[in-house]
Amino acid sequence: MGFRADIVRAVAAGIEAARDGRPATACPYPRGSLLRSAWVRGYARARPADATAADG
Question: What global pTM score does this model have?
Answer without folding.
Answer: 0.81
